[in-house]
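Lab manual, section 2.4: Encoding a predicted structure.

Procedure: take the sequence of the chain (393 residues), apply the prediction step described in section 2.3, and record the output as structure tokens. A sample record is shown.
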Amino acid sequence: MVQPFVYYNRTKIYFGNGELDHLHEELARWGTRVLLVYGGGSIRKNGLYDKIVEEIDKAGLSGYEISGVKPNPEVPLAARGAKLCREKGVDLILACGGGSVIDSAKVMAGSALYEGSPWDLVVEKVRPDRAIPLITVPTMAATGSEMNDCAVITNPVTHQKYGWSAEVLRPRVSFLCPENTYSVSPFQTACGSADILSHLLEVYLNQEEGFDSIDGYMEAMMRSVIRWAPLAMEEGNNEEARANLMWDSVWAINDLTESGHHTAWSCHGMEHELSAFYDIPHGLGLAILTPAFLRFALREETLPRLCQFAINVMGVKNKGDREKVAKKGIKKLTKFLRETLQLPSRLSELSIDDTLFERMAEGVISWKGQEGVVQGFVPLRKEDILEIYRKCL
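Recorded output:
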């Protein structure tokens, strides 16, 4: 039976080019002292920073800022941001950037009202019941962090990269303007698109009962990514392509598709360990791991779902032999990631060997009470995770 659930999403969305003109209205509604969080400075080069500052001034807010968020965000910077919030009496955080920036801002928002280390909250030693309100202006279609309650962050000392969920982290307002993603490079567009696909596949590949309508919705979104990602890579300022990817991104992971059944996030767990030790883009790690995971998961009990994916998403013709259909679907996905998105397909291409595989596999099965087994599309024990990592070499 479908598992009982409660669905609630409070994030208000402004979608479309030019909608950032309403930012000052929402800023004035939610705070008086705002902390602007951003990454390496690309928003200064493309003019977005100036627009943000103009909106802050128009709202009449006192403004502070913290920059330098890394592509794989780390706890020390989030801790600095939380401390700044306490010192300056910040009552609103504005994140402008990709998923790493938004995730860092979430950790700041959740830990600013807590005197201890933000890592205490990430590992759920403490559960926050309140947070500083957060508004986001995403500049990349990938993580969907602008409409969910999740944040992923790395502890560089222990090489632990964990996802953290708490309803208080969910943004109050997000401004989804496709034009803010025009300058994203073809490579980063490809990584972001692989991330969106992975979010959908992690939920879609499930042996529990769910909703036919949600299955169809996920299939449509995966087909959308496959259609629009190459065009966005080729024509960076193609508004239709960028808009579709941006909308796919937020609906792939805002709790809607997960409703009614358990989701293990098997590939994400393996990738978090990978990028905790090796500084590679999250989406790239997923693009390498996902085909290997699918090949490993191919067995009699998973054939119905993998065949459905092959036929409804990858366009494989149903000729009756379910194993052949499923294998063709996995092969077509692998080809799309490698040839169309032009992403490396093996860890060895990134100069990664098996030196840390044992430690990484141990990290996957030990997080959040897994008790030695990740219960997902197929159960994964340490030796299974090691086999998948090795398939990626």
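Check your result against the sample. DSSP finds 15 helices and eight strands in the chain.
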